[in-house]
Amino acid sequence: MSLLMQQLSAWEILDSRGRPTIEVEAVLSDGARASAQVPSGASTGKHEAHELRDGDRSRYGGLGTRRAAANVNGEIAAALRGQSVERCDEILIALDGTPNKSRLGANALLGVSCAVARAVSVSRREPLYQTLAIGEPVLPVPMINIISGGLHAGGNIEFQDFLIIPHGFGSMAEALEATVKIHTRCGERIRKGGYLLTGVADEGGWGPLLPSNRHALEILTASIEDAGFRPGEQVSIALDVASSHFYRDGIYTLQSEGRSLTSEEMIELLAEWSARFPVASIEDGLAEDDWPGWRLLTERLGGRVQLVGDDFFTTNPGRVQRGIDTGCANAVLVKMNQIGTLRETFDVVQLAGAHGYRCVVSARSGETEDSFLADLAIATGAGQIKIGSITRSERLAKYNRLLAIEQRDGLRWTGGAWRSGTL
Ligand code: PGA
Ligand code: ZN
To answer: How far is 121 from 329, CA to CA, in rounded Å?
Structure first.
């Protein structure tokens, strides 16, 4: 007999920045019960699905999520009661009825989608990644934030993330051990350099007051060496430029570098830095609607650097299809709440994979202690995950889940595949 949805409830909770989000609990017809918590971004893309906020300025400056919770408790719970779990996302999408989930809220929909999926895994008594799997489950290579900038670190420098990809190790456990060493060495280097450092940024990386983006690249490369690893060979660098946030009227303004650049000049800069430093991946190197620029960037660097669309694609199948059709980017950042349901998230992963685009399953800068993303990354077979740094427990919830799965279930780790280019 097929499993049916029986009951849903939702309530307001707080994310890692102390902003409201929601938690949803699902109960199925066999009594299985599970909950899921919804993440929230800060450097959001213009084309993301709509995150429903209360707008009541007397609570949390208008950021409350009681309306989203009420939508789950009322209309959504009524529509799903007695329906087969397989139809959950399809019903949610139809019920909302808007292209960007603005009526019921993508946060409401995603919470339900994830809670129901997890309740199914509880009912089947299997790990969540197995319930979600669309192919062979594999442990992803992490892309780990070491230095933060942009909107996640008070606008110190413009680029948002300076990350490492620790691919030259035999396991996730070894890769994380190396990462902790690099993170520590990096903190020491920043302090020795005399730069103001008051703690970690939104995603757990260092958020120092550096003179320029280039300094961050120099410090990160040197920190990999300080830790005793070979840059490029064992540990590569990834950038999330998040460039939409310093782009206006055709110009990219890098105040810290003292430069205002056209798309072509920005591409030159990225080409120069990825030749000078061991940069293997660049996310949002150009702005979310700079389609002609993205095409040039991909022609110029796509053969040797992974070019990831985050704000550019917003996990949206229409935008990913347009990227494929016009030769823009070669990888997709996959964020569940940019699109609003698990089903659509998997659709995007499959669309990307069918056209040779890689995927990176990603957290948001506002996260919770929910480790759902670790299972999602494994289940998609994406081979890459981006969940922030190795400090702050909303990040560690995911890393620790990956470590548990590696050590308990013995899944294959994709570090070797990244290295050999066969990911
Ligand atoms: P966000 O940032 O969650 O604040 O959007 C993450 C990213 O840009 O990758
Ligand atoms: Zn991004």
So the answer is: 35
- Do residues 199 and 207 lie in contact, with contact meaning Cβ atoms separated by under 8 Å? yes
Reference 108, options 123, 93, 118; nearest CA is 93
CATH number at residue 302: 3.20.20.120
Containing domain of residue 209, as a range?
Answer: 138-417
Indicate if 117 and 256 belong to the same structural domain. Answer: no
- 362 Cα: distance to centroid of ligand 1 (angstroms): 8
Is there a contact between 92 and 109 (Cβ–Cβ < 8 Å)? yes
What pLDDT is stored for residue 206 in this prediction?
Answer: 97
Which helix or strand (DSSP H or E) is residue 28 part of?
strand 20-28
Kindly give the distance from the C-alpha atom of residue 68 to the centroid of ligand 1, in angstroms, as a whole number: 21
What are the tens digits of pLDDT across the range 253-271? 999 999 999 999 999 999 9
Is 130 inside any structural domain? no
Tokens 């229409």 sit on residue: 318
Ligand 1 within 6 A of CB of 242: yes
| Whether residues 96 and 45 fall in one domain | yes
Q: Is 392 helix (H, G, I), strand (E, B) or coil?
A: coil
Q: Are residues 276 and 380 in the same domain?
A: yes
Ligand 1 near 41 CB (within 6 A): yes
The phi and psi torsions of 243 (rounded to 5 degrees) equal -70, -15
- Dump the DSSP string for 49-86: PPPP----TTTGGGT--HHHHHHIIIIIHHHHTTSBGG
Whether residues 160 and 116 fall in one domain: no
Average pLDDT for 192-211 = 94
For 32-82, how does the pLDDT look when each residue is reduced to its tens digit (9 = 90+)?
Answer: 999 999 999 999 999 999 999 999 999 999 999 999 999 999 999 999 999
Relative to the CA of 151, which ligand 1 atom is closest? Answer: 4
CATH number for the domain harbouring residue 83: 3.30.390.10
- Burial zone of 392 (CB within 10 Å; 0-12 exposed, 13-18 middle, 19+ buried): middle
Instruction: Tell which of 125, 160, 195 closes a domain.
Output: 125
Q: pLDDT, tens digit, for every residue of 303-326?
A: 999 999 999 999 999 999 999 999
Q: What does the CA dihedral 312, 316, 320, 326 come to, rounded to 10 degrees?
A: -70
Looking at the fold, whether 97 and 165 belong to one and the same domain comes out as no
Question: What are the residue numbers of the active site?
Answer: 203, 335
Neighbours of ion ligand 2 (CB under 5 A): 240, 283, 310
